[in-house]
Amino acid sequence: MEWWKDAVIYQIYPRSFKDSTGNGFGDLRGVIEKLDYLESLGVDGLWLSPIFESPQKDNGYDISDYRKIDPRFGTNEDMYELIEKAHAKGMKIIMDLVANHSSDQHRWFQESKKSKDNPYRDYYIWKDAQADGSPPNNWGSIFSGGAWEWDETTEQYYLHYFLKEQPDLNWENPKLREEIYDLMRFWMAKGVDGWRMDVIGAISKDQSFPAYDSDEQYVVGENHSNGPRLHEFIQEMNREVLAPFNAMTVGEGNGSDIESAKLFTDPERNELNMIFTFTHMGVDERPTAQLGKWGMKPFDLVELKADLALWQTALNERFWNTLYFENHDQARVVSRWGNDTTYHHQSATAFATVLHGLKGTPFVYQGEEIGMVNSSFPIEDYDDVEIHNAYKDLVQERQLLSEADFMAAVETKGRDNARTPMQWDATANAGFTTGTPWLKVNPRFEEINVEKAVADKGSIFHYYQKLIALRHNEELFRTGEFELTNSEDPRLFTYTRTLGDEQLIIVANMSAENYQPLPLLSTEKATGELLISNYADTPAIDVISVLRPYEAAIYKVK
Ligand code: NOJ
Predict the structure, then answer these.
(1) Given pLDDT bands bounded at 50, 70 and 90, which one contains residue 524?
(2) Which of 13, 94, 276, 329 maximizes ligand 1 atoms within 8 Å of its Cβ, making it the mutation to test the pocket?
(3) Which of 105, 240, 410, 519 has its Cα between 20 and 30 A from that of 430?
(4) pTM (2 decimals)?
(5) Which CATH number fits domain 107-159: 3.90.400.10, 3.30.70.100, 3.40.50.1000, 3.30.300.30?
């Protein structure tokens, strides 16, 4: 029933995964081609970022037909074949539900903007201008600027939390909600096993549309998520479609704190299985009203440990966590927080160890399992609309960041770091395409690629394979109670997972220097089994006295 509690899910960003046609754009036949590879990694499910028909203004997170596969990715038949072939290998398929907004090219919006009395008018959020013609309030777009767009024809503003080509859907309208449930039924009837839900925390809007109290022209803040009817809507969705199909669900919990996460994931409330939370990914951020995510500070391990520990403890009973460092919106962790040069292998595997040892469902993002790294491109080589909008706003127009500071932030955490094509081998374009890739390949593909990693038994790939197998074979990963140790240590990441008289001890030196002497790892100095480590000769727990740079291990003691 709760298969996802023992599972590791692999996220595919289809446009960057594998191109089977030579048009420079990844597609579903490319995914089908690589199913054997995914099976050999051992993952239990595949989450595909959106592949529905879309003008691709935000890489598919702007959908114009929810029931049709975008021709760039293939056909509906390709998708049905992928579902069947993944199932034959025991892998579940999770699709991306983008239901906070649609594309402005969706038929609903095309109708909605025709007239104020169009039957689809109320599928979106339309408001009159204020007396002086200005937008209804000072809500900002997450992709820079304001969240309201003026429409000349009907002389009203419509709301868009993201691009103006991504108008927000009006969940107050029961007809709209039924449309969403119905498209979910459509895909579930085809065999889809679950949903990742894009910005699901944003679907309910406070109908008084309260302005933020701020001197800034545009603000993105607490009014953008956790609206008054959010959980009512999710419970309705659960009744209508999730429960009948026994769907696995993971919501993108933007703006979620512990209390709202509990509301989403308490099994007794019948909402979602788990949510992606964001606070741990903010440990290198100094967000300000003006700079948003582009305000940076150095990575702080103590903060990361404290944040992860907080969620581990808070969602322990009944609830369930997601575990991730990477996805299509985040950078490569080995570059962002680790060491992608001298200790590339060691730091990639150390971050994997401390994440996969936690309680929750781990998500591996394509390329993470071979230690793919961040890129450094000139601004014109980036594709991401978020990067370009922020560059225009922060560097060119308001001049709040120097070009150098902005580019440094982009190279650390810009979304395109995760979106460069998957590196399959050392041939042209890393074997991703025979054509011209839609986004440049990372220049380190000859050194970091799947073919090489699979051939090398000591590679990051084989480490992930082993970590994933451990999840399946060792129950303590699901059941063990979490306890953080050495919490204030800025270099050491250690914790235990305990159930009865059995315990996992997770240890990692998250620095590039030897860590010596080691604090006592096991209270009883028990002998334990070394389940996994990222150095070939890591000593047993009762004799280990030093951790080498980024050395990480998991012991089981009794
Ligand atoms: C979150 C998605 O992960 C991101 O890629 C997208 O741009 C926004 N939601 C808008 O859909």
Answers:
(1) low
(2) 329
(3) 410
(4) 0.98
(5) 3.90.400.10
